[in-house]
Amino acid sequence: MKPPPFDYHRPATLGEALDVLAEAGPGGKVLAGGQSLIPLLNMRLAAPARVVDVNRVPGLDGIEAGPSGVRVGALARHAAVERSPGAAAAQPLLRQALRLVAHPVIRNRGTVVGSLVHADPAAEMPAVLALLGGAVRLASLDGEREVPAAEFFTGPMESAARPGELAVSAFFPALPARSGTAFHEVARRHGDYAVAGVAAAVTLDDDLRISAARVACVSVGPVPVVADVTAVCGPRPAASVAWDAVAAAVRDLVEPEGDIHATADYRRHLTGVLAVRALRDAASAAHGEES
Amino acid sequence: MNETHHRVTLTVNGVVREATVPGRRLLSDCLRHDLGLTGTHVGCEHGVCGACTVLLDGEPVRSCLTFAVTVDGQEITTVEGLAQGGALSPVQRAFTECHALQCGFCTPGFLCTVTAFLRDNPAPSEEEALEAVAGNLCRCTGYQNILKAVHRAAEIQAAEIQAAELQAEEGGA
Amino acid sequence: MTTRLFGEPVQRREDPRLITGRGRYLDDLGAGALAAAFVRSPHAHARILDVDVSDALDVDGLVAIYTWEDLPGALAEPLPLLIPHPALTHGRTAYPLAREIVRHVGEPVVMVVARDRYLAEDACALIRVGYEVLKPVVGLEEAAGGAHLVHDDVPGNIGAHLVQEVPGPGGETAREAVDAAPHRLEFRLDVERSACTPLEGKGVYARWDADDASLRVYSSTQTSTSVRMAIAAKLGLPLPKVEVVAPDVGGGFGVKIVHPWPEEILVPWAARLLNRELKWTEDRREHFVSSSHERGQVQHVRVGFDDDGRLLGLEVEILHDHGAYTPYGIIVPIITSTQLLGPYKVGAYRVEFSSVYTNTVQVTPYRGAGRPQGVFCMERTMDKIAAYLGRDRTEVRAANFVQPDEFPYDQGLTFQDGRPLIYDSGDYPEALRMLKELIGWDSFPEEKARAAAEGRRIGIGVGCYVEGTGVGPYEGGHVQITSDGRVHVSTGLTSQGQGHETVFAQIAATELGVPIERVSVVTGDTRRFGYAVGTFASRAAVMSGNAIALACRKVREKALRIAAEALEADPRDLEITDGMVHVAGAPSASIPLATVAVLSNPLRYAFDEEAKRATQFAGPASDDRPPVAEGEEPGLEGRDYYSPVRSTFAAGMHAAIVETDPDTAEIRILRYAVVHDCGRLINPMIVEGQIHGGVAQGVGGALYEKMVYDEHGQLLNASFMDFLMPYATEIPRIETAHLETPSPLNPLGIKGAGEAGVIPVSAVLAAAIEDAEGIPIDRMPISPSDLHTLRRSR
């Protein structure tokens, strides 16, 4: 299991990187953390003509946290984002989700933006971006464009990033006051891709009733499946929500497929269970924020 | 079909080493076959087993999921570099004391992972220790003694630090 | 200082090199050797039409490409059928490189040699093999239906069919006994495929010495002596011109006892042909699709029993999935069908198995070797009887135990070594008592009720097994004390992490009365010891351990004889302590073993100060005796063999408490307890480590690991991403207790321990999940998704 040959480029600036990517076209592949790309190369499931290693491009490893949210640069490792107090404060869901991404050693090297571009529907970070309505910033010789999550994930392992484009950062918006988040998943082994998983965000109104509730589900469709369950949940305090109805609503929205690890029926069932667990935790986190 | 080769300089276990490798050369192969450091083992080459874990600028990474060219100029510690001045490290000593290895193939990956973990978290809880080793596969030990060894290594490390501090105090007095 | 080391938790002598990166595994050897890689079949069943290598020829660094047509003489013949058996009427083995037909995905078709592995893989990717795809035979029952054939000349895909039958006490057949029994049950059980998956795959490195016309081969094998004979035979080389060394081996668990693997003869052949060092290191994907798997069986059970749950008759029919080939014979189903009996007296017994070919990777022993399936069958049977009668599950078991005063106990069957299945010793009631105490069996119902009140589901399960260990035919040991006082021990069998260097040194140090630091042990190197069988069937400690003890006793006797003469004492009055031979109770009258070694070898030439003492003018010697007396040999060394009449029988009992999540169907093991009896313990720390590892593999096999083939015969999970070997987070804490009933069959009183841990785990966890859920668990492994499906269909 050795990678096939490719031309290796290690641009020193963003401009240089975009030049090489433009030249490479569809045969170009960006290497950042490599934790998704290199396994594919080692198994010879991918054979790019050129690999553009952006690890030396300055200015891409930023983690900028502010009241509006967190902007994560292309070279920010999972571990760095997970440990960032600013990121955790601005958007707690990031840390909640990152703790579920593979294992700590993989997180030392893998990047958040890389996992978005990889667009694995079983992965946590795409679901987080989708749930929060974040966006990915793509740069090319033609300039930059900001693609919202809803348009970024186009299919399993497929994103809106075009040949010649480099995902330079992603933005994870903060939530309004009195909001809470949670991420629950079931994986076969600790650290595996989830059999099913649900990220939830809940916002409470002044009377601590649920005023907004959304979930994003992994491993149950070609892209993260986002569902707004505000109407089923509220406006009621979490304690009096008809959770069975919420679970049923989520189950109805997803269209999972069966594979060697789980049947479609189990995934659907599990998504309902995990949605309720995540929403309840998110609601109590929102309460916690209140107090 | 001749591949372009790149010259890389790595500081491995404190020694500056050079190699000329194609872009696709995995760091694991570079260490093992270009630099002759065969202590780092390769168990799956897709990042799941953890046998190839080395420290890159002090942080554990999978050397099978890293190209040698990417880490040009950086510092790497392998299992061969864990013993300082001929003395086994606390983690190495704990692994042998606790019978935390059998065939020994996965062991270098565990040793590197645990070394970095205890540096950052010298007194881990049971849960933290479990999480720390949970990305490395072992087929022989059933992990019982590996977990024991993590805690034992923490004890040895703490005792050594304490002894060094005492010595420093005495030296200062 | 004491030299009594047998039974002590001595720290491992392998560790210093292994924890510092100085181990030498196969791929650590042969820097600069050429690399081999293989083009393997992408189809489960196909006819090879043509092989086009033209594109590959452009690869820089390509050295050679070989197909079956290139293989000369015996190399072109099918690989050996290692263990023939009269019931294996249609044994089939593969060619080293496929000839005409491929029968599983992963079968080697083309061998490529290049400057390094990257380039060899590049060339493989450019070789185009044309195939005519044939109908694949996948699935045990489909295969047994025989609609399509794996081998054209094997009707019904049945490679072997074997019936063993033991009448009941009144001479009744099992059928009669079951039919006449007060109670009867009939059911079906399924066990799916798994595999050994050692962290290090296989590998072969060969060096041809053209000047000497000799071959040295390193292989990551469980049997270097037999690999050596296979290479000599296949390559037509004189045996003394071939040496095989097993270096440090990164785990085996059975897969590396199979030999010669195609690569084990192809790599040496090509190394000689090219006159270049050549190495092949198996990668993970290759290991999944071209090594071996095990476990897949379907069992049909009929059992008859009385009101107390005592077995009166048992009939078992087994369909055993053998994959595409049978190089290791029918050892696995033989073991299943005999070891199924466990610690029980079953009345009349009839077992019948059919070994079935499928277009999948071949099946050969994996740690436990058929026992996990057999124990699953018997223990599920016990639980079903208990449920039917409304009795405690341990009571039903106890009612059927062979009793301590009934040993040796003859089960009336023929075991895997062709010898009668006679248990040597054991104390099953005591083991069960210990286990119940350890896990808290009797208080569990209250615990379960408390949990239920909190909305939690927990369950408890138990499983018992007997394991035939230490099978023959023999192993040997050689012990030499050199004039520096060092003790060099060698034995032919190999090591894959069991700590042989430590335990064999403990035995030698204890037998010889020397400090363990002076003892060194070499295993698996045919240069040091040429006669051996191999490491499998929990046999190394029993076989080589006893052989080494016997060899040490010979050396000791000789040392005492020589020392007695030097000390002018009676050898019967002498003892050896800390490397000194001395008169018992008079330590001043002593002579070091080093000096005894000098005296044992009459010399003409003095090469150092010590040696002077043994030269011809050094001292008084009897003029009327030859320097080497009749019947003596020079040197302080000895060789002996241990060849038992039959196997020893270790035993154990496990219990587990599990919790199942009512909503997600996740299964968590809360406690796992083991009582284990492998006779006398040489090193309790190492035995415990063996149990831990076995249990972890058992948990893998019960809850996580299975080989999933689709209808085309494609293995869908040929990676560590999808073949779910447990991490530390999946393995519970394992609580152990030891019982020691020594074996009367060997001088050390020991039984094997290598495989034990894995054997009953599926049975135990199935029982515990069944107890928690109230749903019969008749198929393993079981995933949360499977459990969810079972809940739905209830």
TrEMBL record, chain A:
Domain FAD-binding PCMH-type, first and last residues per copy: 1-177
Keyword annotations from UniProtKB, A to Z: FAD, Flavoprotein, Oxidoreductase
Record's keyword annotation contains Oxidoreductase: yes
Top-rank lineage group of the source organism: Bacteria
Oxidoreductase in keyword set: yes
UniProt xrefs under PANTHER family: XANTHINE DEHYDROGENASE SUBUNIT C-RELATED
Protein name as annotated: Carbon monoxide dehydrogenase
Automatic annotation (TrEMBL), chain B:
Protein's name according to its UniProt entry: (2Fe-2S)-binding protein
Residue ranges of domain 2Fe-2S ferredoxin-type in the record: 6-82
Keyword entries, A-Z: 2Fe-2S, Iron, Iron-sulfur, Metal-binding, Oxidoreductase
Keyword Metal-binding: yes
Gene source species: Microbispora amethystogenes
SUPFAM superfamilies referenced in this protein's UniProt entry, alphabetically: 2Fe-2S ferredoxin-like, CO dehydrogenase ISP C-domain like
Family matches, as InterPro entries: 2Fe-2S-bd, 2Fe-2S-bd_dom_sf, 2Fe-2S_ferredoxin-like_sf, 2Fe-2S_ferredoxin-type, 2Fe2S_fd_BS, Beta-grasp_dom_sf, Diverse_Oxidoreductases
UniProt-listed Pfam families: Fer2, Fer2_2
Record flagged with keyword Transcription: no
From TrEMBL, chain C:
Keywords on record: Molybdenum, Oxidoreductase
Pfam families in alphabetical order: Ald_Xan_dh_C, MoCoBD_1, MoCoBD_2
Signal peptide residues on this chain, from the entry's feature table: none
InterPro entries: Ald_Oxase/Xan_DH_a/b, Ald_Oxase/Xan_DH_a/b_sf, Ald_Oxase/xanthine_DH-like, AldOxase/xan_DH_MoCoBD1, AldOxase/xan_DH_MoCoBD2, AldOxase/xan_DH_Mopterin-bd_sf
Chain segments carrying region Disordered: 615-640
Protein name: Dehydrogenase
Coiled-coil segments: none
Source organism: Microbispora amethystogenes
Residues of the Aldehyde oxidase/xanthine dehydrogenase a/b hammerhead domain: 20-135
